Structure formats: C-alpha cells, structure tokens
C-alpha cells in the first residue's frame, strides 16, 4: 500500500503586523522557507516535482502566482513548478493534502507543501475592498447566493459568536482559554519547544526567531478589559487569532523517494479529509471533519495523543472539544493562534510543523490537525510520528 511521508516541516516565527517581518516581501519570505527546507532535508532541489503554496490574500505583492514567485525568489532551479491555492485559512493544510494525494497516487514522489502570508503588506480583505474601490462588480456574493441564504455577507465574526452561543461558551470561559494560549506559548518558547520547527529569518537587528505575538504579561483582568468585537457579544480581539506575517513549508515524499534519496522521515500521513457545511455559522465544520477522518481511518479520539485545532477564535477549539469530549490538555499544547498568530495561508503547514515536532518531543504516536475555513469548510489530517 502506498504511503506518504513528511521528511521535515518548518516555519518562520510569527511577525506582528508592522513587526519584525514587515520588510520581507512575501515572495522572498516564501522563498526563504523553501531554501531552508531543502537545506535541512538534503533533498536534491532538481528532483522536486511541485511546490503547492497556500495563500489567501492573492493581490498586490501576493498576486501573480506567489507560489511560483517564491520559487523564483529561492535558490531552487527554474525547472521546479509551483501553484498557489486558496482554501481560505486552511490553504496550506490543503496544500499538505494535495501533496499527499500526489504521492499516494504514484504520480509524483517529491512535493513541497507550503504557505505564505504577509498580513502587514497585504491587508486582510484587500481582494474585495480594492475591487470595490475600482468599481469591479458587486462583490463575491452573487444574487443567487443571496437568494439562497438571505444575506449578502458571510461573516466569520458572526459565525464565531454564533458558535459561542450554540455551545454555551460565556465570555469568562473564552477569556480564560485565551490566557492559557499565551501561557502555553510562553512556556513552550522558554523551554525551547519551538527550536526544531522555527527557521531564523534575517532582519536588521539580527535574526527573527521568536513569535512576536506571545504576551508574557497577559492577565485575565487585562483580557477581560478588551472591547468586544460585537456589541452584546462574547468575543474580543483578545480571544481571536492575531494578525500575523509568516511562511511555512513541509517536504512530502513517497517510500520510493525515501530509499532512492536517502531521506529520513519524521512522520507518516495516516489519513485526511475535507468536509463542508453551513456557510453562515461557517467555523463549526472542524467537528464534522474530525469525526469523518477518524471514521475513515478506523480511529477514535482516545487513539490521538495530540491535537492542533486552529484558534481562529477561542470559541472554535472550545466548541470542538465540547462536541467531541476532547481532553483540552492534549489540544494546542504549545499555545495557538491567539498567542502565536494566524498568518492565514501559512497556518496549515505551520500547525503541522508544531504538531509533528511536539509529538516527537513527547514520544507521542498519533496527532490530528484540523482548522475552520471560510465558506463553512474544514480539513482534517492524522499523522503518525516516526
């Protein structure tokens, strides 16, 4: 039976909006992680058959096929092809899935799954707002979609609030989870838990090696004092993922490539799926995706040692854990996007880098990663650490 392996997975440390990565063009940042991945794995770059790069805000500096531009900005040969994909926040997790599918199908043996997003240089919502300013149509929601759902806008903020209400998550619970994200992230950084996954990025003052979003001085009182995102709501900016700059990359190969190129894997991809549901509540779909991937692979929640559930908002992993009776002590053990940042198209592979290295550091076997995505979609993937 064909297998797909992860030889290595890495990421940049997250940069705050306007922070330490602000001077990096996203194509150059993407090119940097490609170079570092090749250097760390020792793979012959000329044998890479494709680069699949996730990116959500494909406009401005991230337009014109940023995946291919990242290859051109790297030291990889021009002969290495690339494609840029958009599955919203799960773009690079989908890149992982496409790479695994290519390897499992036997059509390719060496593929890079990657992601990049500079939310400093390409502001969130830019593709829509710039088109509106230019008078280019009525926006992405057509008349037929409006007729079907009775709305012209699908808001992740409204969806996150609706999930909090549906799963009976009050503000105090959401704020406490957010504080724990910062606490775990700070503890992981201080213990050197991120060293194996973070690649240094040259900056004017030296090298960027630590996630900028971690707040060592965070307190429950401070978080509780942050203004709510919606009047009468439960979520605030402190219980939402941080705007972030970053890039990530993973090398996915076949068993034949391991033997032919002398590569040593750090994980095996056990199974994956993608599901879709209600585009209005939108961000609840990781629950269904997790159930499906576990069922497909004949596994149970108890078989999984560690989980990575993207903290787009605190209500997402909390609702997921409540619905699936998950042990929060095994979820996002090194903190999540509330503390570390959510560089949109780069987050999928970023979380996988954290998951695999955490499994290996703790002697765990199976890990499951899932994340909510715009439009009511979710990917889920199970990996086995080696």
UniProtKB/TrEMBL annotation:
<dbReference type="InterPro" id="IPR020617">
    <property type="entry name" value="Thiolase_C"/>
</dbReference>
<feature type="domain" description="Thiolase N-terminal">
    <location>
        <begin position="5"/>
        <end position="255"/>
    </location>
</feature>
<dbReference type="InterPro" id="IPR002155">
    <property type="entry name" value="Thiolase"/>
</dbReference>
<dbReference type="InterPro" id="IPR016039">
    <property type="entry name" value="Thiolase-like"/>
</dbReference>
<comment type="similarity">
    <text>Belongs to the thiolase-like superfamily. Thiolase family.</text>
</comment>
<keyword id="KW-0808">Transferase</keyword>
<dbReference type="Pfam" id="PF00108">
    <property type="entry name" value="Thiolase_N"/>
</dbReference>
<dbReference type="Pfam" id="PF02803">
    <property type="entry name" value="Thiolase_C"/>
</dbReference>
<protein>
    <submittedName>
        <fullName>Acetyl-CoA C-acetyltransferase</fullName>
    </submittedName>
</protein>
<dbReference type="InterPro" id="IPR020616">
    <property type="entry name" value="Thiolase_N"/>
</dbReference>
<dbReference type="InterPro" id="IPR020613">
    <property type="entry name" value="Thiolase_CS"/>
</dbReference>
<feature type="domain" description="Thiolase C-terminal">
    <location>
        <begin position="263"/>
        <end position="384"/>
    </location>
</feature>
<keyword id="KW-0012">Acyltransferase</keyword>
């Amino acid at each position: 039976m064909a297998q797909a392996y992860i030889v290595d997975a890495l990421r940049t440390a997250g940069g705050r909006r306007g922070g330490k990565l602000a001077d990096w063009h996203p194509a150059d940042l993407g090119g940097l992680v490609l170079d570092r991945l090749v250097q760390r794995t020792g793979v012959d770059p000329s044998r890479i058959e494709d680069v699949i790069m996730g990116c959500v805000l494909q406009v401005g500096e991230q337009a014109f096929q940023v995946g291919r531009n990242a290859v051109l900005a790297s030291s990889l040969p021009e002969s290495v092809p690339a494609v840029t994909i958009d599955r919203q926040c799960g773009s690079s997790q989908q890149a992982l899935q496409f790479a695994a599918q290519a390897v499992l199908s036997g059509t390719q043996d060496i593929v890079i799954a990657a992601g990049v997003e500079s939310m400093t240089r390409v502001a969130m919502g830019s593709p829509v707002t710039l088109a509106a300013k230019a008078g280019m149509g009525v926006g992405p929601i057509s008349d037929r979609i409006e007729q079907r759902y009775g709305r012209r806008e699908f808001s992740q903020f409204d969806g996150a609030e609706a999930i909090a209400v549906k799963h009976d998550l009050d503000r105090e619970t959401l704020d406490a989870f957010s504080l724990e994200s910062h606490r775990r992230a700070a503890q992981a950084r201080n213990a050197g838990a991120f060293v194996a996954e973070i690649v240094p990025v040259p900056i004017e003052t030296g090298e960027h090696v630590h996630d900028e979003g971690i707040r060592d001085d965070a307190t429950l009182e401070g978080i509780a004092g942050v203004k709510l995102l919606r009047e009468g709501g439960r979520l605030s900016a402190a219980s939402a993922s941080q705007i972030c700059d970053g890039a990530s990359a993973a090398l996915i190969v076949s068993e034949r490539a391991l033997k032919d190129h002398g590569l040593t894997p750090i994980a095996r991809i056990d199974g994956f799926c993608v599901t879709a549901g209600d585009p209005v509540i939108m961000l609840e779909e990781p629950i269904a995706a997790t159930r499906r991937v576990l069922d497909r692979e004949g596994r149970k929640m108890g078989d999984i040692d560690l989980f990575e559930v993207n903290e787009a908002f605190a209500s997402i992993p909390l609702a997921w854990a409540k619905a699936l009776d998950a042990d929060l002590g095994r979820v996002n053990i090194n903190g999540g996007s509330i503390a570390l940042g959510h560089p949109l198209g780069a987050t999928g592979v970023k979380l996988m880098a954290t998951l695999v290295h955490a499994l290996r550091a703790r002697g765990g076997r199976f890990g499951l990663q899932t994340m909510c995505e715009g439009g009511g979609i979710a990917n889920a993937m199970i990996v086995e650490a080696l």
